[in-house]
Amino acid sequence: MMDLVIRGGMLADGSGEELRDADIAVKDGRIAAVGTVAEKGREEIDARGLLVTPGFVDIHTHYDGQATWDERMQPSSWHGVSTVVMGNCGVGFAPVRRKDHDLLIELMEGVEDIPGAALHEGLDWQWESFGDYLDALGKRSYDIDVCAQLAHGPLRVYVMGERGASLEAATEDDIAQMRALTREAMRAGAIGFTTSRTLNHRTAKGDPTPGLRASQAELLGIALGMKDAGSGVIELISDFDTPDPLTEFAMVRSLVEESGRPLSLSLAQAGKSADGWKGLLHLISQAAREGLPIRAQVAPRPIGLLLGLQGTINPFIAHEAFAEIRHKPLADKVAAMRDPSFRARIMAENDARQSHPLARRVMAFEQIYPLGNPPNYEPPRETAVAEQARRLGRDPAEIAYDMLLEDEGRAFLFSPFANYTSYNLDCCGEMIAHPDTVMGLGDGGAHVGIICDGSYPTTLLSYWGRDRSHGRFPLEYLVKRQTSDTARAVGLTDRGVVAPGMKADLNVIDFDRLRVQAPRMAFDLPAGGKRLLQGADGYVATIVSGEVVYRDGQATGALPGKLVRGAQG
Description:
The chain is α/β, with parallel strands linked by helices. The chain has 21 helices and 26 strands. It folds into three domains: 2-54 and 522-558, Urease, subunit C, domain 1, CATH 2.30.40.10; 56-302 and 423-489, Metal-dependent hydrolases (TIM Barrel, Alpha-Beta Barrel); 306-418, no CATH class. Strand 12, helix 10 and strand 13 (294-298) form a beta-alpha-beta unit.
C-alpha cells in the first residue's frame, strides 16, 4: 500500500512538458509512481479537475530570524512553496560574536524592515559559527524545507569587527580568514553566499551595509572558499545603474570565472529607466553563451510599497499633525482622521511636507494606486491617485486620504518603484520569458511593514497563466519556472519535478479559484511586532515529503519540513 495517492489530476510535472492526466503515488516521502496507479493509498486525494504541480521552490527569502522561533514559514507556505532559501542580500545572523548581536539586528531591521524588538525577543543566539547556526535550525521542524546561505554582512563583521562595519578595506589576512570561514560554512551545509552592493540597503541607523564597498579581492577570496568546498551558489544585488556598470559586471564575471560557482543577481526595471535592465540582461546572456553560469533573478509583478494606516509608512507620515496619532490604535487613528478639523490640519501641511525626503516618495501621487481587494498589481494609469484627482477637480492628497480610510482604515495604496515605469508589466513578461533568468525577489519574511511579495508564486501562475489580457504563458512553462528552474539554480536536483524517486513535494490546485488575497496586518511577531501577511485561494493541498501540510489554506499540524544542508541530488 502507498502512503498517499493523488488520483486523476491534470499534471504539470515541472519539466515544461505538456499537461497530462496522471495519478501520483507516494511512499516514504518520495514519488513512487506517476501515470496509472493501481495500488491503494493510506490516504487518497481526488484531484479530478484540479491541477497538480511540484512544490514551489522560492530562492529569495529572509526567514533567517523567523526560522529560529517559528515552525511555519508564512506567508510563503500559503502559496504552494515547499522549499525556501533564506539569507539573501548579504544579511543574516551567523557567524556572530556576542558583542555584535545588536549590530546584526540593526542591519536586518534596516535592510529588511523586520522589527528590531521582535528580533531582540525572538532570537536566542544559541550559536556563534555558521555551522552552529545550522545545527540550531537542524533541531527544529517546519511546515516546509528551509535552506540557509552565508551572508556577507555578518561574515565581514565577525572577521573584521568594527573595521568591517565601517567599510574599511579588508587586509590579506582578513580575506584569508573569510575564505576559510566560507569553506567551513559550505561544508557545514550552507547552500550559498550572498552580498549586497546597493546604496538602497542600510542599517536601522542609516549606515551602509558592511559589504557595500568590498573589493574584488575580498569577494574573490570568499568565492574561492566556495571553490575549496566544491559547493555553493552566489547571490548578489548591486546598483548596476551606476556610471560604470561594465566595471561592476566585469567583477561579477571574474568571481564566476575564477571560482566556477554559479551566480544570480537581482534584475528589475528601474523607476527612472524603462529599458536600462535590458543592457544588464544582455551582459548576462553574453556571459551565459560563453559558458558562465550567471542568471538574473526576476519578479512577476511590480516591486512596490504598501502605504496604509497600519503599515510603516503612508502619504501623511511626515506631517506633524499625523505624528500626534501615529502610534495610536487603528480605530483611534480612523476616528481622528474622520474629524473635519484634523483633516483640515493635514491638508494645510501638504505643501510644506512636499520637500521632505520621505514625502517625495509617499506623496508621488502620479505613481500611487489603490491596491484594491482583490489586489490589482497591473493598475491602469488612469486609476492613479493623481489621475483620479484631475478628473474630479480635487487635490490628490484628499483622494489618498479618503482611500486610506476605506475598510475602517485597513485599505492600502500601492506605490510601485520597480517594474512599472511604463505603466504595465510588459517588462516582467520579457523577463519571465528569457532563458537566462530565474524567478526570485519575493523577500518572504522581510519588509514586513511596507512590502508583501511572498505571494509571487501565486501571481506567476494565476495572472500570467490565466488572468492577464495578453502576453500569457502556457501553464506548464510557468510551473517549470517556479519549480525545477528555481530548484536547479541553487543545486536542489532532488525536487522540482514530479517523477519516480523525486522528493514528494506537491501542490493540488483548483486553478480556476487560484488568486492572491488582499494583504492584511497581523500582530504575531515576538514582542507583539506587526507584519504584513497575504494568503491565497485555490490551494487544495500542499504536500511536503509526502505529508499534507495545508488543506484549503489551513494548516494540518504536520511539520515534515527540515533544514536542507547544501546541494541535494
